[in-house]
User: Fold this.
Amino acid sequence: MFSSNPPLGLYIHIPWCEKKCPYCDFNSYPADAIPEQAYVDALLDDLTQDLPLIWGRRIESIFIGGGTPSLFSAESIDRLFSGLRSLVNFAPAIEITMESNPGSADAANYRGYREAGVNRLSIGIQSFDDERLTTLGRVHNSAQAEQAFTLARAAGFDNINLDLMFALPGQSIEAARSDLARGLALVPEHVSHYQLTIEPNTLFHHRKPPDLPDDDHCWEQQQACQDLLAAHGYHQYEVSAYCLDKRESSHNLNYWQFGDYLGIGAGAHGKITLGGEDRVLRRIRQRQPRTYLEQSGNSRITSEVELDQSDLCFEFMLNALRLKRGFDTRLFRDNTGLSLNTLLPTLKLACDKGLLDYDGKRITPTELGFCHLNDLQELFLQPRSAAKKPFFESSVKNYSQPKYHR
Assistant:
């Protein structure tokens, strides 16, 4: 039984990019010409159809991901936000993040995005090593990466995330530290630092995959980089997220705390709590951009699933256990509508294995549990029918690496 609805975010997916990276399994498509105006119209129409699900609720955070959203002009982003503000209420201190790639960084557009209301930029750098950028199929070099950051600062962005990878092909521990050090020298407010993995629906998987470091070497790289992050004042608050004081990503914290979010755009996912009906819905949009543009209204919805008790328990724990400091037990009740008694047998098992600490008020992964997060999360995965797979693809194969925005 829900006493109130969880906080509500908005995710906006822009599916086009200059080139599909061989490691990328997000819903993205290379394009020479992008129908910006038609897509903005479709996004606003898409959101309009969901308004009856969120009457009276305000948007606490927005994330524009892709693809490469910075391929859109500042004028299109401004028109998008003008339309959004006419449809929904923004929280006074709303966080609005937009992803950008260095290859599409433009001073005028950055200023325009900032004037339109974007107040947090996430720059997909991945590496400052030109050789490894080529291996990763990136369309920028290290000089452009640093220039993008400089342009963002000049445009007024005082909240910037850098995406950086480690465990790259042929990368040594010292090379990984050096790569990260170049990023930290820029003093971003937030760093997403994550391991390169080969996903099934990628060019790296379908063709000959690159030779990646073994597990022990990956672990040593991660430890060395975490020490460097800590030495520069960045604290880890989630599996791959590090920030300076009070600069956590509000939007991603809402995901990890199992809050609600609307998802609009080609292939976007959403989770909406209907507190008055004691229901939680998962909704997925049409993936193909052309089809998404051709359709309208609810015809863009390709899947709508009501989460049952086992879904709610597992998906909550899949997300919340990623948080380094764990969570208050009230959060489980508030954001699932279920009693904590539902979890008690599994909580006891996890505590007995030394994977969790539970003091009656707070649930926190131990150091052992955080190091073996897949095993810990899997304890909460209840048997399901063959016809009903978990929402996150990653919950089948790698619990610690769901496809989050950064």
User: Anything to note?
Assistant: The chain has 16 helices and 17 strands. The radius of gyration is 21 Å.
